[in-house]
Write a structure and sequence with these properties.
Length: 258
């Protein structure tokens, strides 16, 4: 079984002082000795600060969004090259809060993911259904439609974007609600995503296919059961990633699965 990936999405939270305290707790928790990949995604204004605080640690730095274009008249946006220059290794794209609050379409999300991968970053492409789609039993259809624009895109000749990214399944109704989806439910959708990947990239060996994470109200007390799902490559964690002990406990639970 490959190493799990645990990503903390800080969303629009933090301050210079709070980030420093959290970074100190995370970098002294002994995570580098454990078989798990851990990352944090602070707001973009704190990336430079966090790059300094994480220097020498195994914690990866990630951003929460990226523009698809290399430069230009895009007020408020940041490019993939800028993120890479600051030391980011990954970037979230298509988080449901970006899709809803900034009108990002799945085609735009795919373009952002491609720009990120071309700059050497790992795009973490987030997909997931709304409460209404959940109630209508449309979760697989919605997720597949969100994934579709990623198929066939090449980072460079002969290298598929699908080889270079991570996927995160986050049912919108579970995000920030305190109610995670059940492992049975998550398993069905993750298996469906894996089936889609196998069809979209038939030439890729299983080991080359991306990790697929679960996100939505993950806490230390439900992390292990999600991580024990065969199809679950890790977790995307919002609220609990702001509490050092909780994030460390989740990362430790992931290390225990290997
Ligand atoms: C998220 O926003 O990606 C998320 C999973 O949030 P939470 O863990 O707070 O539900």
């Amino acid at each position: 079984m490959s190493r799990k990936l645990i990503i903390g999405n800080w969303k629009m939270n933090g301050s210079l002082a709070a980030n420093e305290a959290l970074a100190r707790a995370l970098t002294t928790a002994g995570l580098e000795e454990k078989p798990v990949d851990c990352a944090v995604c602070p707001p973009s204004v704190y990336l430079a600060q966090m790059a300094g605080l994480l220097q020498g640690s195994s914690l990866l730095l990630g951003a929460q969004t990226v523009h698809a274009r290399e430069s230009g008249a895009f007020t408020g946006d940041v490019s993939a090259a800028m993120l890479a220059e600051l030391g980011c290794k990954l970037v979230l794209v298509g988080h449901s809060e970006r899709r809803a609050g900034h009108g990002e379409s799945s085609e735009q999300v795919a373009a952002q993911a491609l720009a990120a991968a071309r700059a050497g970053l790992t795009p973490v492409v987030c997909v997931g259904e709304s409460a209404d789609d959940h109630d209508a039993g449309l979760m697989q259809d919605v997720v597949i439609a969100q994934l579709a624009p990623l198929a066939g895109l090449e980072v460079e000749a002969g290298v598929l974007l699908l080889e270079k990214l991570v996927l995160a399944y986050e049912p919108i109704w579970a995000i920030g609600s305190g109610e995670a989806a059940t492992p049975q439910y998550v398993s069905v959708v993750l298996e469906c995503i894996h089936e889609w990947l196998a069809e979209a990239a038939p030439a890729l060996a299983e080991e080359a296919l991306p990790r697929v994470l679960y996100g939505g109200s993950v806490r230390p007390d439900n992390a292990s059961e999600m991580l024990s799902l065969h199809a679950c490559g890790g977790l995307l964690v919002g609220g609990a990633s702001l509490v050092a002990e909780e994030f460390i406990a989740i990362c430790s639970a992931a290390a225990a699965q290997v």
